[in-house]
């Protein structure tokens, strides 16, 4: 590159976005160590071997898919809000009204938890009760009958307890 070498470009990219996946493809093996400083996924030397390159690319794709964050649309009187699954602490249902407890505050909309469970499948949500759908990433405490999510204590029903604890254990263990 004329104005900037790959390492300098990688450093600038890292300052803007720490989650970008970087793969260096070059002739210079002596710069491979510097790739670790910018948290590069890999350093592929030319000439490129097809098998090696496809395995590096497959790993990059796996990491991208793992980072994907589902989003849902929440209808409000003022319009429709797009909410990332990671922003949601939990969703509460009462009389066909849903209250989304989020990092932005509370949002209310009509709907059912059953529909949301389907939309958020694979996003690490689990029901601890018929009226709560909990983002497992935001669980801070659990005891016999309650789970604490964003400083709110939510009741765990007896029929849902076993499945909820299994889901939480799988999530904490890194299983998808």
Descriptive report:
32% of the residues lie in helices and 34% in strands. By secondary structure, the protein is an alpha+beta fold. The strands form 4 sheets. A 5-stranded antiparallel sheet has the order 7-6-5-9-8. Strands 10-11-12 form a 3-stranded antiparallel sheet, with no helix packed on it. It starts with 5 loop residues before the first helix and ends with a helix. The model has no long low-confidence stretch (mean pLDDT 88).
Order of helices and strands: HEHEHEEEEEHEEEEEH
How much helical structure, as a percent, in the residues?
Answer: 25-40%
Number of helices, where a helix is a run of at least 4 consecutive DSSP H or I residues: 5
Radius of gyration, CA atoms, in whole angstroms: 22 Å
Tally of extended strands? 12
Could you report the average pLDDT, rounded to the nearest whole number? 88
Distance between the termini: 40 Å
The largest sheet has its strands arranged as: 7-6-5-9-8
> In percent terms, what proportion of residues is strand?
25-35%
Largest sheet: 5 strands, antiparallel
Low-confidence parts, pLDDT < 50 over ≥5 residues?
none
Shape: elongated
User: What structural category do the secondary elements indicate?
Assistant: alpha+beta
């Amino acid at each position: 590159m004329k104005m900037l070498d790959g390492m300098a470009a990688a450093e600038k990219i890292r300052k803007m976005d720490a989650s970008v996946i970087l793969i260096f493809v070059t002739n210079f093996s002596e710069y491979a160590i510097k790739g670790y400083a910018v948290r590069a996924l890999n350093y592929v030397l030319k000439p490129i071997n097809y098998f090696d390159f496809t395995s590096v690319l497959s790993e990059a794709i796996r990491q991208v898919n793992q980072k994907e964050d589902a989003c849902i649309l929440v209808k409000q009187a003022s319009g429709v809000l797009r909410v990332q699954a990671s922003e949601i602490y939990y969703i509460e249902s009462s009389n066909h009204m849903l209250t989304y407890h989020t990092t932005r505050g509370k949002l209310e909309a009509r709907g059912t938890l059953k529909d949301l469970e389907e939309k958020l499948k694979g996003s690490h949500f689990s029901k601890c009760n018929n009226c709560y759908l909990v983002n497992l990433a935001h669980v801070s405490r659990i005891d016999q009958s309650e789970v604490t999510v964003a400083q709110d204590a939510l009741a765990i029903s007896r029929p849902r307890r076993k499945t909820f604890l299994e889901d939480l254990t799988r999530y904490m263990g890194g299983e998808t």
